[in-house]
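wait is this the right file?? whatever heres the structure
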């Protein structure tokens, strides 16, 4: 009888131990499902699909350009800066959203008219700044004899591109901001609205050689990458920042029904 009781006790102990292991496994599974659900919910909350505008320009929407970004579920976005007379800048590409960053790669922009440019500003420690320009067509063939004019205070400064499509402009360093105009055969080809004369620039222009018109559809943003740090991402609004543009607030456009 003693042996049978011991065996019975051992059996009960084993059964109890087995039940405890099963309970622990159930708790572990429940915790795992909870974390998966929480992650899925957080990820869903971090989606930015839809059309957004830059909130800082909301109060001036009728008197200046407005920036809009449309984010699609397939990882593609469209960008447009619209002014009183139409599109000022436009672009298209892939976006990448992580828990702490947003990257906009303008790799899908189709150049419609009249072209686009890539600017790389930098500082120097001299009393003058240098603009290093290279002008190409859309197949990256150099365009010679492009007249370039920098409209600073006083007389414009500039010249013609050489056989390699290159031109160097040097002007005194100031806090002035001025326009840069490219012309060919006396036809305006491209205009940069604001060049900061406190910075040096390496500038590459890619032109269609189609003259600009009063109803220009805007300048293309192509082959540029913008990186932002996520400050806040919640509901129909998110905030990002980078060193170049500072803090920017995106507000979702409400659907009109």
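ok assuming it is, sequence goes like this
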């Amino acid at each position: 009888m003693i042996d049978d009781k011991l065996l019975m006790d051992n059996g009960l102990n084993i059964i109890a131990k087995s039940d405890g292991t099963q309970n622990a496994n159930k708790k572990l599974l429940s915790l795992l499902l909870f974390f998966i659900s929480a992650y899925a919910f957080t990820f869903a909350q971090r989606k930015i699909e839809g059309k957004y505008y830059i909130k800082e320009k909301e109060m001036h929407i009728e008197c200046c350009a407005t920036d809009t970004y449309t984010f699609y579920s397939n990882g593609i976005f469209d960008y447009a800066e619209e002014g009183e007379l139409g599109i000022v800048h436009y672009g298209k590409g892939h976006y990448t959203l992580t828990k702490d960053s947003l990257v906009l790669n303008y790799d899908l922009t189709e150049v419609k008219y009249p072209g686009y440019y890539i600017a790389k500003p930098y500082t120097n420690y001299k009393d003058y700044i240098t603009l290093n320009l290279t002008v190409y067509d859309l197949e990256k063939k150099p365009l010679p004899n492009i007249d370039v004019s920098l409209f600073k205070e006083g007389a414009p400064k500039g010249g013609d591109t050489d056989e390699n499509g290159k031109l160097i402009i040097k002007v005194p360093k100031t806090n002035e901001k001025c326009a840069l105009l490219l012309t060919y055969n006396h036809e305006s080809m491209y205009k940069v609205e604001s060049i900061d004369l406190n910075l040096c620039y390496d500038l590459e222009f890619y032109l269609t050689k189609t003259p600009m018109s009063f109803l220009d559809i805007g300048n293309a943003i192509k082959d540029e990458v913008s990186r932002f740090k996520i400050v806040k991402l919640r509901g129909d609004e998110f905030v990002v920042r980078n060193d170049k543009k500072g803090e920017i607030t995106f507000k979702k456009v409400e659907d009109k029904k």
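Residues 122-206 form a domain with the Immunoglobulin-like fold (CATH 2.60.40.10). so i think its the right one actually
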